[in-house]
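note to self: dont lose this again. the chain is below, predicted strucutre after it. 352 aa total, dont forget to put it in the shared folder this time
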Amino acid sequence: MHERTVQLYERQAALYAEKKPARHWAQADAFAPRCLPGLPVLDAGCGPGGYLRSLPRPAVALDAAVAMLELTRAAAPDALLVQADLEALPFRDRAFGGAWARNTYLHVARTRFPLAMARLHWALAPGAPLELSVATGDEEGVWDGGDMPGRFFVHWQPDVLRELVLGAGFEDVEVTEVEDDTWARGRRARTLPDTVGPGMRLLVCGLNPSLVAADAGFGFAGPTNRFWPVVVEAGLVTRPRDPLHALLIDGVGMTDLVKRATPRAGLLSGGEYRSGAERVRRLVAWLRPGAVLFVGLEGWRAAVDRRAVAGAQPHGFGGVPAYLMPSTSGLNARTLRAELVAHVRAACALAG
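---
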């Protein structure tokens, strides 16, 4: 999060609590019964803890400002308090049965929002609900107005917010505008989140997550899939089976044409591929990776060019170079590992 904003909350927590009391009780009361039983609920960016009285127990109250947590201790003595950044959640995978985030992720820079949402996805159990709000609009930067000038804010248009929450691996996502805010409601899906951000040298796009991959937490997880050995040998990534390391250390992002996880890609429809390709196209046009590597011919042929062959694609994708390579699945045994490595190296060269 924005360091100066956290410092302001440290110094002016009491003022914030006075000026911004909890008031969205309808949303909080509707969220609580949707939470998964038997798991704690996360208040992500709890502030002074005003909404915790409506959240199920056990509840974990997280905030970057210690001063806010001290106020939360008084408001909800039974809550477990955690000081941490929304962009570095310190929890094990699938720990929570629900996440409430009232106007907290609006302090995360726009291009870092997808990865922050991926981290939240990982922290939630499949089926866990999400209730998140942000300010509506297009602005991003430090705001010098209001009761606490100097805070960093990002405003979001509802349709853009919905698409990014879907890309983060949530389903049944609905967005509504309430006064000056946009609320997003959804459930953590049995799928994979996009791991994307600014400055990617290459974005890898698969067809869709398999159920094995969705449960493992990383793409291409099948025991016979050759993707990770291939990309390590090609020099694209330095650690296998770790999409977070690939993004942060190697500059390699990962997404899928279709977010719905299936036992096999053959269960997907042409319509799913086409709508998914448009989502990925918008993502690419926004984040501008050096190039996009599409793994698997089927999705590209269904969504973009049914006569396409493996190799660099003549028209690119989303304004950047695009490379199409055969599937790394063990079912595609006719494509040798050495050929797959050569394709990945060619994609790297295309990215520059």
